[in-house]
Structures are given as structure tokens and as C-alpha cells.
Amino acid sequence: xxxxxxxxxxxxxxxxxxxxxxxxxxxxxxxxxxxxxxxxxxxxxxxxxxxxxxxxxxxxxxxxxxxxxxxxxxxxxxxxxxxxxxxxxxxxxxxxxxxxxxxxxxxxxxxxxxxxxxxxxxxxxxxxxxxxxxxxxxxxxxxxxxxxxxxxxxxxxxxxxxxxxxxxxxxxxxxxxxxxxxxxxxxxxxxxxxxxxxxxxxxxxxxxxxxxxx
Length: 214
Hints:
Elements: H1 2-17, E1 22-27, E2 31-34, E3 37-47, E4 49-58, E5 62-69, E6 76-85, E7 90-101, E8 107-121, H2 170-213
Parallel strand pairs: 2-8
Antiparallel strand pairs: 1-3, 3-6, 4-5, 4-7, 7-8
């Protein structure tokens, strides 16, 4: 019986020692709100060396790349984390690419995907006030008393002249010119009369002196 156990252990030993490297992806939340942050964790198992690139696109923009090896080139479990903040509503598309290698030099290509749904804005969802189904009571008839006649006295005739009527001052100017001409004519006539009277008076004086002389 012991021989069977020994043989079983001998056959299983290469399987245990030569375990294949593997990678898994996990997010802290599957649904978040705009402005919140989600953490992406990539877990590597049975890995001695890794070259991993994590990229988040869509409703967020984030990325991280890590390449390293264990100090003793033996298999280990490694976790790589990345935080992505949702900047808009929609979906954060997370993609993990790269390769991992075990201590037995077995290399595995990695291609993992994960989506996180982004809704609403964090901390700004204000509940709407309840709608009042009560109807406003009917308004009473408007009992405003009629306005009395405007007691304002009528304006003068000058105020009733339309603003667009332009008074032509040329008529008054012509009347003034006529009066001036008449006054000038009267003055000229008076001057002529006075001159004639002076001349006649001189003639009369000359005649008197002549008569007296003879």
C-alpha cells in the first residue's frame, strides 16, 4: 500500500513544481457614480517575472505599467493595483495586457478585460420635492373699482401743437423788413421836407434883404 502512495507522489511532484503562471482581474466596485474612484487589482500567481500594462478608458482615463522579477527567480504571488476616477457617465473599460513567466521559464500572454458602469454624479443627487396635488382655490371676481375721469385740466394751445410741426420764421422776418423800409421812407421824406423848408427860408431871407437894399 505504501508503494502506491510513493508512486502517486512521484507522479504528482512534477505537476506541483511546474505549476503554470496565471493572472486574474478584480475591481472594488462594479457600479460607481461620476466623481467616485474604483480600484483595479490584478493578481499574478506562480509567477517569477512579469510585464503588465493596465489601461482604463471610456468614462475614465488611467493607466499603469509594471515590469519586474522576483529576487530569487522563484514563483510568487504578486498584486498590482490601479485607481481610476470616473470623469463622466458611461462605462470604464479596463484592459490588462502583457506576459508573465514562471520559474520554470514558462511564459504566458495576458489579455484580461473588465467593465465598470458609471451613473449619476456623486453627492449631487438632490431629491425632488413632492408635487402638491392640491389645486389652487378659484380666484374671486376682480372687484377693482373703475377709474374716475382724469381731472387733469386741458393743456394750452401751445402744448397742443404737434411736435413734428416746424414753425417757419421767414414770415416774421419779412414783416420786420417791411416795417424797417416804411420807417426809412418816412425818415427820408422828413429829411427832404426839412431841407426844402430850409432852402425856402433862405430864399425868403434873401428877397427881404434885396428889397431893403433897393
